[in-house]
Design goal:
Layout: H1 2-11, H2 15-26, H3 29-44, H4 54-78, E1 90-91, H5 100-106, H6 111-122, H7 127-134, H8 138-152, H9 163-179, H10 182-188, E2 189-198, E3 210-211, H11 213-230, E4 232-240, E5 243-250, E6 255-263, E7 266-273
Length: 283
């Protein structure tokens, strides 16, 4: 019993960081929590007195578990119904550099590229330690991170959006889209705006990305009719996966999140989560 308490005392302060690493590797809250719990079980069976740096040891353990998980996750994504989006994280702070578009870009990387990029560029881990974690030499690890950086460059925000301004846009987007004010909505959208909706086959959602101003506007005209008839209740306006957005409760009683990618003051990306399996952690 004392051994378990001792393990928890050294593990629990690191749990939030380990969960952040796992979530950014996997894009799933439930899977990240499972991986971290698995790491804790392994920590229970470890000779902890022989571990000089528990944080580094546990980060290595979590990363390797995630790499194993990604192998099966890739196969599942290939059969996923409609666009796949990461589980939404509704956060009070917007200091997270890993925004939703960046997480989608990470999906296009190999698991090792993803690990090298996240550990070094996002979490600030030295390359020697990253190399030890992913079991590659330092030169190969630097190459993996460099390739990843090239692939995700366009997904990283070019400038920081002031939080207050982002939330103003989110509030205005909710009001215009639910009231059917297409003039106000159209004024917010970029010419090349895109919309991605993840229903996972569990709730109605567009089966393919909706791309271009005219197509997005046509869809929202149809949605406005449904919102007017059945309603859509605003629950929260805040930061969702590093982007301004809002949480609503829809006519079917389920939550929905909408995250907005803003470029040059216009909405360039609309990311809507409707899959109830990915919203369970919000209840």
């Amino acid at each position: 019993m004392e051994s378990g308490a001792d393990a928890a005392a050294s593990f629990d302060p690191l749990r939030p960081l380990l969960t952040r690493v796992a979530y950014r590797m996997l894009g799933s809250v439930a899977d990240a929590e499972d991986v971290v719990q698995d790491a804790f079980i392994r920590w229970l069976g470890t000779d902890r007195d022989a571990v000089r740096e528990p944080a580094a040891f546990l980060r290595r353990t979590v990363t390797r578990l995630c790499l194993d998980q990604l192998k099966s996750a890739r196969a599942q994504r290939e059969t996923y119904v409609g666009p796949w989006l990461p589980d939404p994280l509704v956060e009070e702070e917007d200091d997270d550099d890993v925004t939703l578009p960046l997480m989608l870009a990470l999906e296009r990387l190999s698991p090792l590229e993803r690990a090298a990029f996240l550990l070094h560029d996002v979490f600030g881990v030295e390359f020697d330690e990253v190399a030890k974690t992913i079991e590659r030499d330092a030169a190969a690890t630097r190459q993996l991170a460099a390739r990843a950086r090239t692939h995700v460059r366009d997904a990283r925000p070019r400038y920081k959006l002031e939080k207050a301004h982002g939330l103003e846009i989110a509030n205005a987007f909710f009001a215009a889209s639910r009231s059917g004010d297409m003039g106000a909505l159209g004024a917010m959208l970029a010419a090349d705006v895109g919309m991605w909706s993840d229903g996972g086959g569990k709730r109605p959602a567009a089966m393919v990305p909706v791309l271009g101003f005219d197509t997005v506007m046509t869809l929202h005209r149809s949605l406005a009719v449904l919102f007017g008839k059945y309603g859509s209740t605003l629950v929260h306006v805040g930061t969702i996966n590093g982007l301004p957005g809002f949480v609503t409760r829809e006519a079917d009683g389920e939550f929905q999140t909408t995250a907005l990618e803003i470029e040059d003051g216009k909405v360039a990306g609309i990311y809507v989560m409707r899959n109830p399996d990915k919203l369970k952690h919000m209840h």
